[in-house]
Amino acid sequence: MIFASGLSRGVFTAGNDVTELYAPKTTWKRYREFWLTQTKFLARLLNTRLVTVCAIRGACPAGGCVVALCCDYRVQTLEGTFGLNEVALGISVPKFWAELFLYRCIDRTKGESLLQRGLLVPPSDALQLGLIDEVVDAGELMSSANSALDRYLKVPSSARAMTKQTIRSNFSKEWASYAEEEAKGGWKMLNKPHIIKALGGVLLKLSGGKAKL
Amino acid sequence: MIFASGLSRGVFTAGNDVTELYAPKTTWKRYREFWLTQTKFLARLLNTRLVTVCAIRGACPAGGCVVALCCDYRVQTLEGTFGLNEVALGISVPKFWAELFLYRCIDRTKGESLLQRGLLVPPSDALQLGLIDEVVDAGELMSSANSALDRYLKVPSSARAMTKQTIRSNFSKEWASYAEEEAKGGWKMLNKPHIIKALGGVLLKLSGGKAKL
Amino acid sequence: MIFASGLSRGVFTAGNDVTELYAPKTTWKRYREFWLTQTKFLARLLNTRLVTVCAIRGACPAGGCVVALCCDYRVQTLEGTFGLNEVALGISVPKFWAELFLYRCIDRTKGESLLQRGLLVPPSDALQLGLIDEVVDAGELMSSANSALDRYLKVPSSARAMTKQTIRSNFSKEWASYAEEEAKGGWKMLNKPHIIKALGGVLLKLSGGKAKL
C-alpha cells in the first residue's frame, strides 16, 4: 500500500483539520470520537500485515508526519519539510506520536530538541536522522515508492508480516489503549484560554483572516 | 570468554539446525526442550558476569548473529555477512532476537527493514550500524578479539560486572520468562503447511537435494 | 536555567563527594538520605517545566555527567571529558544513570562499552555520540549556552513544557520510585571490603595522601 497526496500543491498532508482541535467550534463528544478514530487508525496502520510505503511530496508536518512514521518506508521529494511541529502551534505533541518519532530518530536528543521547539526539518536532515529512508527528485517519487514496495514483497509475506508485528504489536496495543485517556487530557488542554487563543490565531492565519471564530 | 568457530570454512555458525525447526522431523516435546534450552542459554549469555567477545570469521546469520549480539564485543573478518535472515527462510524473527538486534542497531528504522526483508549485510555495513564493533583482516581476528578482552579486563571486574548486569538483567529476565510462550507460538507457526514447505526447501537445498523429507 | 561551574579550574563538577560513598566515614541513615535527596533532585531536574541548559567547562565525570544528561541542552568547552566513570573507581553505575546515558547515546553498544570500562571521552567524541549538543571555545561557553536557552524560549512555553513532560515523566517517575531500593543495594555494595578498599584509595589519591581513613 502506498500513501501519496492527490493535492496539486507540494503538501503530503497538513495533518489534522485545526477546526477539530479548536474547542469553540467542536464538542467533547465530537472531539472524543475524532481522537479515538484517528488513534485507532494510526495504531492499526503501524501494525498492519500490509507493506506500507509513504510517497511524500513536499510538506509533511504533524498528522502527516505521524502517518509517515507508521509506515514501513518513507521516500520524500528534495523540497519539503518533515516533523512534529505541534509546539509551534501552541499545543503539545501527543505521547505516542513523540515516542514513535524518537524511536525512529537516530539521535534521540536532537529529536527531543526538535519536538520541544516545534521544528520541521528539510528532507536531507530527516534522512540523516533516520526519520525518512530516501530523498528523490519530485519526478521519481512514485517510481521510488513502487521500487521500495517491490523490495519488501520479494520475501515470503507471512514471515515478513509476522516479524513486523512481533516488533510493533506491543507499541500498537499500548497506543490504542491510551486513546481514551489521551482524549480526556487533550480536551482539557484544548479548553485552556491560551490554547484557544493560539489555535484561533492559526485558524485566522489559515483562512487569510476570513475565519469567523 | 571468546567465541570463535572451529570450522575450516568461513562460517562463524549457520545458526540453528533447521532439522530442529522442521515439524515433520521433530515433535512438540523435542522442539519445546530445544527452544527452552536455547533461550535459557542466550538470556544467561547476555547477562553473564564474564567478559564475552565474539571473533566472527565469515558468515554470521540467524542463531550465530544472536549469539554475537549477546556478547560485549564483536570483531568480524572483512569477508562475511551479519544479520537475522529468518524471513528469507520463510519463518519469523523471534521476538527478543529482533529486540536485541534493534537495540544494538544505531538506525532502528533501517534495522526493521533488514529484519522484515530477511537481509544479511556485509561487515562494513554492520559496523556502521553499530551491530559489530570492529572489522579486521582474517589473520588478525584472534589477536583483535584478545585485545578487546584485555581492554575490558583492565577495570575492577566486580564493578564492571555489576554495571553490565544493571543494564541487561531486566531484558534477560523478560527474555527467559517469555520462552515457554514463545515455544508454543513457534510450534504453531512451524506446523503451518506453507512453513513446512519453505523449511523443507531449505533442507533440500542444504543437503544438495539429498534430504529425505 | 543554566548550570555552570563557579570553579576556577576546568571542572564542571567532579560529581558526588566520595566521602559520602565511603562506608567507614558515613552511616546507613546518612547515606540513605544523601541518595534519596540526590535522586529526587535528578528526577525532578529531568522533568522540570523550565528550559535547562548545561554550560560545561572542562571535566564532567560521574555525577556531573548525569546532571548534564538531565538537561535539555549541553554545551561543552573543547578541552574536557564527559562520561560515567564509576567503574574506574571500583563502583557500579546506578541503574537510571546508565539508562539515561544509553538513551542519549546514538550508539548504545559503544555506550555500554564506555560504561562497562569506566571511560570518559573527549567532548568531540561525546558530540559525535549525541551525548552533548555543541562544543565551543572556552570564551564562548556562556554566550552559546544563552543562545541555546533563547532558542528554546522562542516557542509557547506551555506547549514546550507539556511536550517535554510527555516524553520524560514516565522515566522520571520510575527513577524516583526506585531510589529507596537503590539506596539499599548501594549501601550493601559500599560495605563490601574490596569496594571500601577501592574508594579508600580514591580518597587517599584525592587528598594527596593526607586523608585519614
Classify the oligomer: homotrimer
* Count of beta strands of chain A: 4
**End-to-end separation of chain A:** 39 Å
Overall average pLDDT of chain A? 94
Largest sheet of chain A: 4 strands, parallel
* Gross morphology of chain A: globular
Work out the radius of gyration of chain A.
Answer: 17 Å
Q: Helical residue percent of chain A?
A: 55-70%
- Hey, roughly how much beta strand do the residues of chain A contain? 5-15%
Could you explain the architecture of this structure?
The structure is a homotrimer of 213-residue chains. With 213 residues, chain A is α/β, with parallel strands linked by helices. Chain A is built from nine helices and four strands, in the order βαβαβααααβααα. The first copy, chain A, has helices at 28-47, 62-70, 86-89, 95-104, 108-116, 123-128, 141-153, 157-190, 193-206, and strands spanning 2-4, 53-61, 73-83, 134-136. A four-stranded parallel beta sheet of chain A has the order 1-2-3-4. In chain A, α1 runs parallel beside α2 (62-70) and α1 packs antiparallel against α8. The first copy, chain A, is globular and about 50 Å long. The relative contact order of chain A is 0.18. The model of chain A has no long low-confidence stretch (mean pLDDT 94). The interface between A and B is medium-sized, with 21 and 29 residues.
Summarize the structure.
The structure is a homotrimer of 213-residue chains. Chain A is an alpha/beta fold.
Strand and helix map with partners:
Three copies of one chain form a homotrimer.
Chain A: E1 2-4, H1 28-47, E2 53-61, H2 62-70, E3 73-83, H3 86-89, H4 95-104, H5 108-116, H6 123-128, E4 134-136, H7 141-153, H8 157-190, H9 193-206
Parallel strand pairs in A: 1-2, 2-3, 3-4
Helix pairs in contact in A: 1-2, 1-8, 4-5
